[in-house]
Design a protein that fits this description.
single chain, alpha+beta, seven-stranded antiparallel sheet, elongated
Length: about 350
């Protein structure tokens, strides 16, 4: 009887627990899940509204900036036109004076004898000659050129760089050319990661394309027009260089002619420990950064004549350099600590 009573009590306890469990599940289904569903709906609507509001705000900012910059272009255009008009009037008057003087001198020579020429015209002629001498020859003037700096806008620059990296970076397939890789670097199978080793690998140093001293490598293909962009993961390395170069960049020797950023054929963003710099033609320019970027975007605009280095995480332009590029540009890389990788 005692065993039977204990067994019955156990069954009763089990039934009560099942009832409580069922009640909890029912409450979850009837109350919690509908509330969650409504919460998700509200949160999604709020998120949509936030996106729309922010994009409207960005759109308004872009419209205002467009209007401001177009107005500056118009003002600059009018200024140059006015300068050209003023110059045209000035030099037209100068031509008229010179023509009148020439006509007068020819008339003097033609109509007067030698004695009359000396006596009657010398003072007058001397004065007119001085007038002619006071008319200088035209000189090149910056006032007659359109100043492209009038359209410089930090807001437009950042938005443009962000848009280019979002739309283009990764869409253009870039691989590292194995034939150019320094013996101090190893290239991954997908040809996107370079890893540094202080010990030189056994490679064919007679290969004309290969860098035999500096830890450099080039991409397989060059860019020659339009806008180009790519991203590199650099979070593992504290010694690297990223940028572009001409194919004419020398590959052999330890001199500056083959060292990235120390010649006129390469433009690179450089990191060594905590020091960041832009390098070109042996003229380093310090770049002050609070935080080391995990990724760096490289953007080249051939029409605008610009190479730009960008931190995608913070939407920050690290450095921008303007140059009229005379040859196609190869993405170029160097690493002297751990590894760097192209990001798709």
């Amino acid at each position: 009887a005692a065993r039977r009573s204990a067994f019955q009590n156990k069954i009763v306890d089990r039934c009560e627990r099942l009832q409580l469990q069922s009640a909890a599940i029912a409450r979850h289904v009837d109350e919690v899940l509908p509330a969650k569903d409504q919460g998700v709906l509200n949160a999604a609507n709020a998120a949509r509204e936030l996106v729309i509001q922010r994009l409207i705000f960005v759109g308004n900012a872009c419209e205002n900036e467009e209007q401001r910059l177009l107005e500056k272009v118009h003002v600059e255009e009018e200024r140059v036109h006015q300068s050209i008009l003023t110059q045209r009037v000035h030099w037209t008057e100068a031509l008229q004076k010179l023509a009148a003087l020439r006509t007068y001198l020819v008339d003097v020579i033609t109509n007067l004898d030698d004695q009359g020429l000396v006596v009657s015209t010398a003072p007058c002629t001397e004065g007119q000659v001085k007038v002619a001498e006071g008319i200088l020859e035209p000189q090149e003037s910056l006032k007659l050129n359109f100043n492209q700096a009038c359209v410089q806008s930090p807001l437009l620059h950042r938005l443009w760089a962000s848009a280019v990296l979002c739309c283009i970076a990764g869409s253009q397939e870039i691989h590292i050319d194995e034939k150019t890789v320094s013996p101090n670097l190893s290239l991954s199978e997908d040809r996107k990661t370079l890893t540094f080793s202080p010990k030189k690998a056994k490679v064919d140093l007679n290969c004309l394309e290969r860098f035999d001293h500096w830890p450099n490598a080039l991409a397989t293909a060059a860019f020659h027009s339009g806008v180009c962009a790519w991203k590199i993961s650099v979070e593992k390395s504290c010694a690297y260089k990223l940028g572009v170069c001409y194919s004419s960049l020398p590959r052999k020797g330890s001199g500056n002619e083959a060292r990235l950023g120390f010649n006129t054929a390469s433009w690179v963003f450089s990191r060594y420990d905590k020091e960041f710099r832009f390098l070109h033609a042996g003229h380093p320019q310090a770049v002050e950064l609070i935080k080391s970027p995990a990724e760096i975007g490289v953007l080249v605009d051939f029409a605008g004549g610009e190479v730009l280095f960008y931190d995608p995480d913070s939407c920050t332009i690290l450095f921008s350099h303007r140059e009229s590029f005379a040859e196609p540009l190869y993405p170029v890389f160097a690493v002297a600590h751990q590894s760097i990788s192209l990001v798709q």
